[in-house]
Design goal:
The structure holds two protein chains of two kinds.
Chain A (H helix, E strand, L loop, with lengths): L6 H4 L3 H21 L8 H19 L3 H29 L6 E3 L2 E3 L1 H19 L8 H19 L4 H18 L3 H21 L3 H11 L9 H14 L10 H4 L11 H34 L3 H25 L17 H23 L9
Antiparallel strand pairs in A: 1-2
Helix pairs in contact in A: 2-3, 2-12, 3-14, 4-5, 4-6, 5-6, 5-7, 5-13, 5-14, 6-7, 7-13, 10-12, 12-13, 12-14, 13-14
Chain B lengths: L11 H36 L1 H12 E6 L6 E2 L5 E13 L7 H12 L3 H13 L6 E7 L1 H9 L7 E10 L7 H4 L2 E2 L3 H6 L12 E2 L2 H5 L1 H5 L3 E7 L5 E8 L7 E2 L4 H10 L5 E7 L5 E7 L4 H5 L4 H9 L8 H4 L9 H10 L8 E3 L2 E4 L2 E4 L5 E3 L1 H6 L3 H11 L1 H10 L21 H8 L5 H8 L9 H13 L23 H16 L17 E7 L19 E8 L6 E7 L9 H12 L1 H15 L3 H15 L12 H4 L4 H16 L1 H4 L21 H5 L2
Parallel strand pairs in B: 2-10
Antiparallel strand pairs in B: 1-8, 2-3, 3-4, 3-5, 6-7, 8-9, 11-12, 11-19, 13-16, 14-15, 17-18, 18-19
């Protein structure tokens, strides 16, 4: 079968890459507008980062399964140590911080932990004998694997990332086949714990974000300002928006963080419902492809790893979109492939790369790779 | 057993099945979140689009009201008594300040505010309603204005703008008459919820004509729509609707005459009222000492206010309407008219033996007049004559005439308040004090003493009615309608008799020989009055402490045989009528011969140390120095506008009329604009549409 398209390119998962590339380019257009009609500083670096991390994703996609299994735990432990180092640096610097300065790069280990947690758990359940899935041995080590990074991230404090790690971990455990009753009781315990956590674990500014989420109009110029302005931006866009570069909410700085957390509102103001549906459908296609990859995977490790990546990406997308539309509290989670910011681009491209890797394992047979095939 | 697992069948394939089921459930969950998001998006963008579009627009667009320019207040000839001057100003809106102290310090540096002004500002900010703007400075030069404008981002709540401030060319001369303007108080805003009132730079009339004609003068505010950022920076102008200037109000007041009279009052505390006998139009209502309404417009300082309110000569009271004085002998001609109407023959004589016995008591006259008839009783001001005939006629009847002549009356005038005083009679006394009327009450009232109290305006109305024999009513607003006044029902002989007697007061063997006008063909008639303030045992009324001295009064009209103008002068504690009639003489001289009047005033002002405005400014500076404050030099007056309405303008105008008479060819073409020398001043002589339309 001859084709004009070279095989290595035709082999790529275009049903995911097409919406991904369109979405990223659309994101760059929105960032161009958010910068007041300029490629700098947002749109150009957005596209450059996408390019760099696409190469990274392709490299990941080429990795053999055995190698991945080999590095799963060391990678997890390494990132955990980085998180401890963040804490230590924060304590020495006399304040809390979330990143490490490594030369010119500002590394945020909590971001790396999101895919790493899924990797570590997938590896754990891969090695766990099937008969033990209903016993405490399926639960306790996994619980520790999740609890350590969540605890460290909460100390930073970064509630959004902690929830993201918890969510990815929980999804992997759920899909690993742990007894349903455990999840139901955990849900019940959570329902009791949430009010307690609200009162004792959250910082006042976090508490305020929750209360203003429940009633944004109660403080329209204070913490509710973000949600109110975001809803105004989305609502005033109408069906087809105010037009490219015509968004007054973002250009006149009514919208907070128009290029990062609230980039969807910036987009919706200028592109309206049509733009919003395009973004939601694009994300849907990417996640649907990811879920298909997970379900088509040949081994337990592959399945759980791919599903964990989908869960991580889904959490980003869902929480961000729920937040900007006033359905979730403001937790400071950017929108994948659209928000300006290297950390989120890196995490999500790691997820994409991992999914492409599993996809390759699925299509090329066991143990195969580009180099070995 | 849809999602659960049984321990018996745990193997690779059951776990794979479980994965398939559970991942399907999560996929459906994810899809439903996606649907929820799409639905929410549609709800916000479509169903609630109208609401959010409005909110977005109200974020984006900031509407600022442009305060309307206030209508001018014109004198009878169309010259501006109150106009507007363009200026640069800075206001603050207290509730928008972020760090008030720091911002005030910055403003103080930029605008060179002194400590007194800063103290006033802090007090105003503390007392303000928060949303209402407070003036920091006006009349700024462009450099100071620009300095503030540039630093606006660090000065939230500070509003610099180009606006107009009220300008009263003749200052204190019109203070009481026109009132002043100022920023609306919290009460005023709560009474009239017009957003215009809290627009920075907008001022409402606070007193006098400014307050009475507020709605006419106000005009329509303009609006400026600008696009602003969240931090309030203006991005661009969207549209501007210009303001509509308020309508002018034209008074019957003669601006130059008003200024002349106010200045002629000089160092005294008193008032001058002049009316047009034919129309009842008030030509002059001067009350001094006064305040400078210009300084109220700029936001009067506490030091200046203290100076005004501490003065025992009450510069804050309009004495024309609210000064009440015993009329003294000025009521004698009017009482004589009453006697005649009640059948007393003017030739009937009595003997004044330095006083007269009424009942069983002897009442003193101020002199021994010998044989006295009605005319002599007027021009020599014999008290005994009035003791006798008031007793004979009965004072209740005399009081009824006094009311018909305007005493004790309120007039239909657009003023905030007027005091109407007292015309005593037996019924009044019984009601007020629950005491019977006594013969000595008649004696006191017959010479305008006792319970009698009148305002200068009432005395002027009385003079006008004596002059015309008609119930002339005063008016302040210029109209074109011709008014007809009812006759007071006196025959011409009676009126002429009194006219002759009153002329003799001035031009004959009367009490006010010095009041004779220095004009050959115009004879002024008048009547002096001296009103005792305390009993003779306490003070002789002519010397001693100022507040125990007698009031000096004079009512007058001219020309006596064909009256055209009438009026009254009251000098508080002037020590007798001698303080009043020279002022009346000069004011009337100015009406008939401005040059002569001006010469007299100039000589006096040289003696007094400048015009009323200059003296007030100097006194304020002295007071401020004594209080340990420094005051900034006042803004230079706009001579161009002032020159159209001050006393000097009249002479200027006359020169133009003379010039026009001598050069008839040149004025027969009013359509051609001619570069006549000093043409801009000609407005004082006749109404001019251009002045009313400007600004």
């Amino acid at each position: 079968m001859s084709s004009v398209i070279p095989a290595p390119i035709a082999r790529q998962p275009w049903s995911m890459l097409t919406p991904l590339i369109l979405l990223t380019c659309f994101g760059a257009a929105v960032l161009y507008s958010a910068a007041g009609g300029s490629f700098t500083p947002f749109a150009s670096s957005h596209l450059i980062r996408f390019g760099i991390f696409m190469v990274v994703a392709l490299v990941i996609a080429a990795m053999p399964r055995d190698f991945v299994k080999l590095v799963a735990y060391p990678a997890y432990v390494g990132i955990l140590l980085l998180l401890v180092a963040v804490e230590a640096a924060g304590a020495m610097g006399g304040g809390s911080q979330r990143w490490l300065e490594v030369g010119p790069i500002r590394l945020q280990p909590s971001e790396l932990m999101k895919p790493a947690i899924a990797l570590a758990l997938a590896r754990f359940y891969d090695t766990l004998p099937t008969g033990m899935i209903g016993s405490w041995r399926a639960l306790v080590p996994a619980g520790v694997i999740i609890a350590l990074p969540v605890g460290l991230v909460l100390m930073q404090p970064d509630l959004g990332t902690a929830l993201a790690i918890l969510f990815s971990g929980a999804v992997v455990m759920f899909l690993a086949g742990l007894p349903m009753s455990w999840f139901l009781s955990a849900g019940a315990a959570g329902a009791i714990a949430v009010p307690l956590a609200y009162n004792f674990a959250l910082k006042p500014y976090q508490q305020r974000r929750v209360t203003t989420f429940l009633d944004p109009e109660s403080d329209p110029l204070g913490s509710g300002y973000h949600i109110t302005q975001s809803k105004i931006a989305i609502g005033s866009g109408g069906f087809s928006g105010k037009g490219f570069n015509e968004g007054s909410q973002s250009h006149l700085q009514y919208l907070p963080e128009p290029h990062t957390d609230f980039v969807f509102a910036t987009m919706a103001e200028e592109w309206g419902l049509l733009g919003g549906l395009f973004v939601i459908v694009s994300f849907g296609l990417i996640l649907y492809w990811g879920l298909k990859v997970a379900r088509a995977a040949q081994s337990r490790f592959d399945r759980l790893l791919a599903a964990g990546m989908v869960a991580t990406m889904f959490f980003y997308i869902a929480i961000n979109l729920l937040m900007v539309m006033g359905l979730a509290p403001v937790v400071g989670i950017p929108l994948p492939f659209m928000s300006h910011g290297g950390s989120s681009m890196m995490t999500n491209m790691l997820c994409v790369g991992t999914l492409m890797m599993v996809h390759r394992w699925n299509t090329q047979g066991r143990g195969g790779g580009l180099l070995s095939s | 057993m849809p999602f659960g697992l049984t321990k018996q069948v745990l193997n690779e394939s059951t776990l794979t099945n479980s994965f398939d089921r559970r991942s399907f459930v999560l996929g459906v969950g994810g899809l439903s979140v996606g649907m929820l998001l799409a639905g929410r998006m549609g709800y916000l963008a479509i169903a609630e689009n109208d609401k959010y579009a409005v909110e977005s627009e109200s974020n984006r667009v900031n509407l600022t009201l442009i305060p309307p320019r206030r209508g001018w207040i014109l004198d009878r000839n169309g010259a501006p008594l109150a106009s507007n001057q363009a200026d640069f100003r800075v206001d603050i809106i207290p509730e928008r300040l972020h760090d008030g102290e720091r911002e005030l310090d910055t403003l103080a540096k930029l605008l060179k505010l002194d400590d007194a002004k800063l103290r006033d500002l802090r007090k105003e900010i503390d007392e303000s309603a928060g949303y209402a703007p407070i003036e920091v400075a006006s009349g700024l030069d462009y450099d100071a204005f620009a300095a503030v404008s540039i630093r606006l981002p660090e000065l939230p709540g500070v509003v610099p703008q180009r606006g107009f401030s009220r300008y009263y060319p003749t200052g204190p001369s019109v203070g009481h008459l026109l009132g002043y303007v100022g920023a609306a108080s919290r009460e005023e805003f709560e009474a009239d919820r017009n957003p215009l009132l809290i627009t920075p730079g907008y001022k409402i009339g606070k007193d006098g004509v400014e307050k009475q004609f507020e709605q006419t003068l106000r005009g329509e505010p303009g609006a400026r729509r600008v696009e602003v950022t969240a931090s309030g920076r203006i991005v661009r102008d969207l549209s501007t609707r210009p303001d509509v200037q308020g309508d002018p109000v034209q008074l019957t007041i003669d601006g130059p005459l008003q200024d002349y009279a106010a200045r002629r009052l000089g160092l005294e505390s008193g008032s001058v009222v002049v009316m047009d006998c034919l129309t009842g139009e008030l030509l002059c209502m001067a009350s001094m000492p006064s305040f400078d309404p210009n300084s109220f417009s700029d936001g009067i300082g506490s030091v200046e206010y203290a100076m005004l309110s501490e003065n025992e000569r009450v510069p804050l009271r309009n004495k024309v309407l609210k000064g009440l004085y015993p009329p003294g002998s000025t009521v004698k001609p009017m009482h004589s008219m009453a006697f005649m109407h009640e059948g007393i023959d003017p030739n009937e004589r009595i003997v004044c033996g330095g006083g007269r016995r009424i009942g069983n008591r002897f009442f003193n006259c101020w002199s021994n007049h010998g044989v006295v008839d009605m005319a002599k009783s007027v021009y020599q001001s014999c008290d005994s004559y009035y003791y006798h005939f008031a007793q004979q006629v009965g004072f209740d009847k005399v009081a009824a005439y006094a009311r018909r002549f305007g005493l004790g009356q309120e007039f239909d005038l657009p003023v905030a308040s007027q005091f109407y005083g007292t015309v005593p009679d037996p019924a009044w006394k019984l009601k007020k004090y629950e005491q019977e009327w006594q013969p000595y009450d008649t004696v006191n009232a017959s010479i305008g003493q006792g319970y009698y109290l009148t305002s200068p305006l009432q005395l002027a109305v009385m003079a006008t009615r004596l002059a015309t024999g008609r119930e002339v009513a005063p008016s302040m607003i210029k109209t074109n309608e011709r008014k007809l006044f009812n006759s007071l029902d006196f025959n011409k002989d009676q009126i002429d008799y009194i006219h002759q007697a009153m002329s003799d007061v001035v031009n004959g063997p009367g009490t006010a020989g010095r009041a004779r006008l220095p004009i050959d063909d115009v004879l002024m008639a008048g009547k002096t009055g001296t009103a005792q303030v305390v009993s003779l045992s306490k003070s002789d009324g002519k010397s001693g402490p100022w507040k125990y001295r007698d009031h000096g009064l004079f009512v007058f009209y001219a020309p006596f045989d064909n009256p055209r103008y009438a009026g009254a002068v009251v000098i508080e504690h002037g020590g007798g009528s001698g303080a009043a009639y020279p002022i009346a003489r000069d004011v009337m001289t100015f009406l008939f011969d401005p040059q002569k009047g001006m010469d007299a005033l100039r000589a006096l002002e040289k003696e007094w140390g400048g015009t009323a405005q200059q003296r007030l400014q100097r006194r304020y500076e002295e007071y401020a120095r004594a209080a340990g404050e420094t005051i900034p030099p006042s803004a230079p007056l706009d001579r161009e506008i002032q020159a159209r309405v001050d006393a000097e303008a009249r002479i200027e105008a006359q020169r133009h009329e003379a010039f026009a008479r001598d050069n008839p060819r040149r004025v027969r073409r009013p359509d051609v604009e001619e570069p006549v020398e000093g043409d801009r001043n000609s407005g004082a002589g006749r109404p001019s549409g251009a002045q009313g339309a400007a600004q």
